[in-house]
Amino acid sequence: MVLLLCCLIPAGCGGDAPTPAASTAGGGFGAVERAADGQTVRWWMYGGDVAINRYVDRHVVPAAAARGVTLRRVPITDTADAVNRVVAERRAGRDSGGAVDLIWINGENFAAGKEAGLWLEDWAGRLPNARGLDLDAPIVAEDFRVPVDGQESPWSRAAFVFAYDRARVTDPPSDLDGLLAYARAHPGRVAYPAPPDFTGSAFVRQAVQRLGSERAGLDYLRRLKPFTYRKGRVQPKSEQELSTLFADGQVDFAMSYDASFVARGVRQGTFPETTRPFLIGGGSLQNTSYVVIPANAANREGAQVVADVLLAPRLQALKADPAVLGVPTVLEPDRLTARERRLFRAAGSPYLLESLGTPLTELPADRVEPIEQAWTREVLR
């Protein structure tokens, strides 16, 4: 729907007229901060994760207030809700004073909005705390293979991680061949959510990337299907449903594109304390979460300050702390001071992986839906 709506935007909104520059004339980021003082930033973000909401409310909101910006979360269930609001405003000719100041964006919606000229340009690399980023690294410079080009700023990192209960499984599979062998030896004990569920789609993409091609990945999943939960005739509809089957002992593995999901599950009491995370294939599908500022945002300067706050080493370290979120940082240790590096020396946790292995690069955003459709045609049916 977002792609279709963006295609309806007149060409003048996305290409002929330049997107307003991010910086305030003269004075560098200091001028941005002075303009931001007293602004209220409305951050449209997925509201269904209690732990992330708590982190934002307890840590990000006060840090933004200390820099003169009031931050308000606008909880949404789908990123498309925020993007469509921006689209509607632009189609109505509202090129400034928009209701959306900042969005926690996903790759597909970023790509669609970038093509339509919805986003503020040339600001992310100018944030003071961007010094801690490797802006040339593909995992930061590209969002689902779409060049970021300074239009969004990273704030969190995601990795596709599996879980097992060591009280039931002593030796989890280390690669896809091992997973297939396990499924054959234990029929019905392996499952994954059906795409287009986000987690199920990521599992399919990991198979495609790990095996080197779409054809090889789909062939593998066809071979796996007869040995999955209920012989693949009934599949979990979501990550939550799969996690429930895992917690109830009906399947042996869970999975998530959240590297801290095991820690959260144990903390909430939904997973047994014997649950442990693991990787399949010595690495994981990884991507970066970004925030983006609409070009017509009413409080663009305040939104830039909030984006800078999100990159502050202290807040990144808090987010990485297993007791808070356990989410991997986007900062590079060798770009931080010795004092800042010490912030990340939190106690280890058996529920978090010390290493996420070799990253598997995400597929281009425009390949996600076609692969999901191919899975439906060739694997599901």
Attribute tags:
D-Maltodextrin-Binding Protein, domain 2, alpha/beta, 381 residues, 16 helices, disordered N terminus, 15% strand
Structural class: alpha/beta
Overall helicity: 40-55%
- The CATH H-level homologous superfamily of the largest domain: Periplasmic binding protein-like II
Which residue ranges are poorly predicted, with pLDDT under 50 across at least 5 consecutive positions?
A: 1-21
> Class of the largest domain in CATH?
Alpha Beta
Report the average pLDDT across residues: 91
Give helix and strand order, one letter per element, not per position: HHHEHEHEHHEEEEHHHHEHEEHHHEH
Major β-sheet profile: 6 strands, mixed
Radius of gyration computed on alpha carbons: 21 Å
How far is the N terminus from the C terminus?
Answer: 25 Å
Total discrete domains: 2
> In the CATH hierarchy, what is the architecture of the largest domain at level 2?
3-Layer(aba) Sandwich
Individual helix count: 16
Strand coverage percent = 5-15%
Structure summary, number of beta strands: 11
In short:
The chain is α/β, with parallel strands linked by helices and 381 residues long. It has 16 helices and 11 strands.
Structural features, described:
With about 375 residues, the chain is α/β, with parallel strands linked by helices. The protein folds into two domains: about 1-155 and about 285-345, Periplasmic binding protein-like II (D-Maltodextrin-Binding Protein, domain 2, 3-Layer(aba) Sandwich), CATH 3.40.190; about 160-285 and about 360-380, 3-Layer(aba) Sandwich (D-Maltodextrin-Binding Protein, domain 2), CATH 3.40.190. It has helices at about 1-5, 10-15, 30-35, 50-65, 80-90, 105-115, 140, 175-185, 200-210, 215-225, 240-245, 260-270, 300-310, 315-320, 340, 365-380, and strands at about 40-45, 70-75, 100-105, 140-145, 145, 150-160, 160-165, 255, 275-280, 285-290, 360. Strand 1, helix 4 and strand 2 (about 70-75) form a beta-alpha-beta unit. Helix 10 packs parallel to helix 16. The radius of gyration is 21 Å and the shape is globular. The two termini are about 25 Å apart. Residues about 1-20 have low confidence and may be disordered.
